[in-house]
Amino acid sequence: MKLPFAESFKIKMVESIRRSTREEREQWLKEANYNLFSLKSDHVFIDLLTDSGTGAMSDKQWSAMMLGDESYAGARSYFNMKSALKNILGFDYFLPTHQGRAAENVLFSVLIKEGHVVPGNSHFDTTKGHIEFRKAKAIDCTIDEAKETELEHPFKGNLDLTKLEAVLSTYPKEQIPMIIVTVTCNTSGGQPVSMENMKAVRALADKYGIPVCYDSARFAENAYFIKTREDGYADKTIKEIVLEMYSYADMATMSSKKDAIVNMGGFIAMKDQELWNQASTFNIMYEGYVTYGGMSGRDMNALAQGLDEGTEFDYLETRIKQVEYLGSKLEEYGIPFQKPVGGHAIFVDARKILPHIPKEEFQAQTLGCELYLEAGIRGVEIGAILADRDPETRENRYPELELLRLALPRRTYTNNHMDVIAAALKNVYDRRDEIKNGYKIVEEAPIMRHFTVKLDRI
Ligand code: F0G
Prior knowledge:
By secondary structure, this protein is an alpha/beta fold. The protein has helices spanning 22-31, 59-66, 76-89, 100-111, 125-133, 161-170, 195-208, 219-229, 238-247, 273-286, 297-310, 313-332, 350-353, 363-375, 384-387, 415-430; strands at residues 46-47, 93-97, 117-120, 137-140, 179-182, 212-215, 251-255, 266-270, 345-349, 377-378, 380-382, 403-407, 439-443, 454-457.
């Protein structure tokens, strides 16, 4: 008999979680103004809000923490992180930052100015926020296939080279500070970018003289998909694939809370020393001295160890197979989601489930609230609330996809939890026609409103 798949870890420490009643959840959700970010985590049974900083560190990471060097300048932990970045990603220069958006803030302070345009594949919301805050424009060049959730395509994170070249040839070089390639592409469903696409982006970048920056939060998951889906990579190690990926980039920002499996941390990495010099000034102002940049020594140590573990095939296989397992359950129940499954999450197609709710009433948010009420499971809306208002017209932006993201923290839940998630979603799906109304906004922030928005039932 063929042996079934099992996780490549065993569990050494556990944290209790608690179920609640539907009445309790009704009350808590109301108190949270129907914004899932505003719930207390103690009021959540299975938390799929994000895979960011929510994973379980390994015994090796915890022991690396004990060896952290907390010297203000020149700490051993800094050099551990530096050699991990050199060995794994191939960058000579880097600056630690406290998380991914801080890396964006520092790097963009050097490179992005008013009137610039920044093409990329579905920029993440903080990335777009940092671009728009500087009165520059993020231009989405993701392939159209990414917008059809039922369409199987191995690399739905790819940039459409025609769209990209149109941007590069329309604006003068001085107005395009960088091309951003997000690996994997979170907003389009945790979808990977192929090596072939990365090479082609590099070629276009060279043709027009524009630098390439990888938004690297889930670069290792991207490498796993290259290994398992792209011709010519099956026999390469994840680490070999990662080095090749970054050979096509000039710089990178990273939220290390994802694929470096730490609770907090980030960095900017670059090949150019002059850029490092310029970014250092902003890093010192916003984050901290260049050898810690908002991170403690122990966290830099855990990050260095996490980068190494996160680029091991067995770890990644365990991780992605759990996402696939949840996907296969949803498939069995006929629930529509972005296919093939992404690296870190399932993106449920709320527009297909609740077509009778108008987009102005926020379909994905409505589905997210229903799932919470059903079983205390917290996902996150990737739809019109997240898409925010157009910075110029102030009109609501309605994206083509209304998705409910169920992000899986790394090494945290078991497949029994996946069964509960799938069953809860099936229950909501089965009573979808009884869900008559969505939500309206009663209060919102001028930018990145989804974190703090207050809603009410219609
Ligand atoms: N880039 C990508 C692709 C991300 O997914 C995130 C964060 C960031 C940048 C910003 O990094 O949170 O460390 O400041 N994504 C989280 C998520 C929040 O839930 O997808 P950060």
